[in-house]
Specification:
alpha+beta, 118 residues, four-stranded antiparallel sheet, 17% strand
Length: 118
Amino acid sequence: MIRISNPFWRTCLLLPVIALLGACQSPGNEPDTEAWVAHLETRTENGFTRCESPRPEMCTMIYQPVCGLVEDDKACLEPPCSPFQYRTLGNSCSACGLDEVVGHVDDECPDDLGTPET
C-alpha cells in the first residue's frame, strides 16, 4: 500500500474523485413538473392550483376531494421510476398542508389518469 503523508498530494488525489461524484448530481435529472401539471389539467379539465408557502397548519375536516400532484421521493428500485404520483386527498387545505404536495385540481383523481409518459 502506498502511503501519502504530504497533505498537498493527498488533496490533489481527492479532487478528481470529488469532481466525479459531483457530476452524478447533474441538474438535467430534475423531474419535469410542468409536464405532470399539464397532463393533470388536460385529463381532468380543471385548473391547477399550486400550493404556496407558508403551508396551512390547521384545516377543516370538510370532504371536498382534490386530485393532488405529489412528489414521490421513495428510492427507485426498478426503472422506469416516476418522480410524482397523483393522489386523491380530502380537501385543498389538507392537500397543501403536506410538504410533498406540489398542487391540485378539484375533484377526485380519475382511475385512468396515467402519467405524462403514457
